[in-house]
Amino acid sequence: MQDATTIIDIEQIKMLLPHRYPFLLIDRVLSVEKNRSIKAYKNITANETFFQGHFPGKSVMPGVLIIEALAQAAGLLGALGFDKGDLSEDSLFYLVGVDKVRFRKPTGPGDQLILDVEFMALKRNIWKFHASAHVDEHLITSAELLTTVME
Fold first, then answer.
1. Pick from 10, 12, 61, 88: most CB atoms within 10 A?
2. What is the CATH number of the domain that holds 140?
3. 3 lies in some domain
4. Is residue 145 situated within a structural domain?
5. Are strands 92-103 and 138-150 parallel, antiparallel or unpaired?
6. What is the pLDDT of residue 149?
């Protein structure tokens, strides 16, 4: 079990998530509060592949990738924060819905995207999370994420 002081590095993250470069969008987990929340980050570097076309001369991380990073954090919260009796080793969290999305500011190379995800509810195998992404003290993106667990 992980607690609020736990730091999880990239090697441990790769054991928990199936994503790999260039689609693994979490570099480190800063804290996990079982059944409640997770805080992680993504270091955004100038050599990210998506910056080649988004946008030349003005690098901006695509909003859908910020949502994906938040969804990956929700998946980690599911893998780390909930009783393993409910989940098998082959269980994966799949993103099935995104509600109330707001993109407030752009983010780009040199930024550290802080990902905060809080568990809200579970109904009929649909997990609901409140998610937000910050750079420094600035809110970049907020959303409600809906996931389900499948083998």
1. 61
2. 3.10.129.10
3. no
4. yes
5. antiparallel
6. 86
CA nearest to 75, candidates 120, 27, 18: 18
- Whether pTM exceeds 0.85: yes
Largest CA distance in the chain: 50
Active site residues: 54
Contacts of 140 (CB under 8 A, 6+ apart): 66, 103, 104, 105, 106, 107, 113, 133, 134
SS3 71: helix
List C-alpha distances in Å: 151 to 32, 47, 77.
Answer: 23, 34, 17
Q: If the chain, 151 residues long, is cut into consecutive pieces of 10 residues, what is the mean pLDDT of each piece?
A: 70 94 96 94 96 92 98 92 64 91 97 98 94 98 94 76
Tell whether 29 is covered by a domain. yes
Q: Are 58 and 41 in contact (CB under 8 A)?
A: no
